[in-house]
Each structure stands twice: as structure tokens, then as C-alpha cells.
Amino acid sequence: MYAVVKTGGKQYKVAENDILTVERIPGEAGSAVVLDEVLAVDDGKTAKIGAPTVAGTVVSAEIVEQKRGDKIIVFKKKRRQGYRRTQGHRQELTVLKITGIGAGKKPAAQKTAAQKPAAKKPAAKTAAAATTAAKAPTKKPAAKPATKTTAAKKATPAKPAAAKKPAAKTAAAAKTTAAKKPAAKKAPAKKPAAKKTD
């Protein structure tokens, strides 16, 4: 019996008691892991292919160790530019031992842990909304005079802004004239060498 499992963005064909090295999965050595993205299962008689996964089928595994892969040297270079960068990389990996393939569900502890933070977030949002509602009446009277001053400010800067535009144009024109280089002068034509008469 074997199964095709997807983990870490890769697919692996696994059978019971296989040792497998995959991308890092959180957990300590000896802890159990459930791989629920089973793409296909074959028991020797029938094959089930999921769309995209086989419903109700999981692969259970045990973490053997957490390790790091071999060092890879990343070297970048752009020729004739003086650009060279060297960087090392070691991928974090998890070694798994497949303990079983079959029907099953995720551990209940993982589901309840996922549900509890979701329950806390709406409560936090309502508490934040209540505090902003309590603070809102104190801020409104201060905001009204500010809107009048901003309206006054909007009317006055229109004239200086118009005066700034021609100055910007002249500065841009000065930059373009300064940026233009004079045409290169041609070297004067060489005169033919005088013939010597002896």
C-alpha cells in the first residue's frame, strides 16, 4: 500500500515504515504529525485519486529529527561592473518516519487551537470598537475648528503655488541646458608632409 502526499510544496510517494526528508515541519523529535493532503492512495487492489485530495484519508508520521541540509553557495556577478555577491544557504529539513496510511481525522487539539484564536479576535474587535465609540464624542468638538482652518489654508496657498510653477520650469530648463554637452570639436586635418628634395 502506498500514498502520494503533498507537503512543503512537493509531492512524495510514501509507504508504511518509509523514512522521508521533507521541508521543515514544526515539532520536536518523537512527536506525531498528520499529513492530510493525500493526493492518491493505492492498496494493491484499488487506486483512489483525489480531486484534489482523497477525502477522509490521512498519512500519519513521526518526526525522527530536525536538521539542516548541505550548504549551498549563492554567487551573483555582473561582468565588467565590479558587482560580486556571495551568500550561503542551508535549508531546514525534517526527517519523518511514516507510521500509517488510512482513514482518519486531524487531532482534535489542532482544531480547538485554531478555533480559540478566531473566537478571541472578534471579542478584541468589539472591545476596540467600544473604546473608539467612547472616545469619539470627545474628539468631535476639537475637529470642527480644525476643518475651518484647513479650508482657510486651502484658499491661501493657491496663489504661491502658481508662482512656484514658473520657477520650477526655469530650473528644469536650466538643468537641461546644463546637461547638454557641447559638440565635440573635430581635430584639424593633418597637412601632408613636405617632400624633401636633396
Task: Note the topology.
Layout: E1 2-7, E2 10-15, E3 19-23, E4 32-35, E5 38-42, E6 47-49, E7 57-78, E8 83-103, H1 108-155, H2 158-179
Antiparallel strand pairs: 1-2, 1-5, 3-8, 4-7, 5-6, 7-8
Largest sheet, in brief, is:
4 strands, antiparallel
CA distance, first residue to last residue: 109 Å
Using only CA atoms, what is the Rg?
Answer: 37 Å
- Strand runs, count: 8
Provide the number of structural domains. Answer: 2
Q: In terms of per-residue confidence, which ranges show pLDDT below 50 for 5 or more consecutive residues?
A: 107-119
Overview of the molecule:
- By secondary structure, the protein is α+β, with helices and mostly antiparallel strands.
- It has 2 domains: 95 residues, no CATH class; 45 residues.
- It is 35% helix and 36% strand.
- It contains 2 helices and 8 strands.
- The strands form 2 sheets. It has a 4-stranded antiparallel beta sheet, with no helix packed on it.
- β1 and β2 form a beta hairpin.
- It is rod-shaped and about 110 Å long.
- The termini are far apart.
- About 7% of the residues have low confidence.
Protein traits:
198 residues; 4-stranded antiparallel β-sheet; 8 strands; alpha+beta
Short description:
It is built from 2 helices and 8 strands, in the order ββββββββαα. The protein is rod-shaped. It has 198 residues and is α+β, with helices and mostly antiparallel strands.
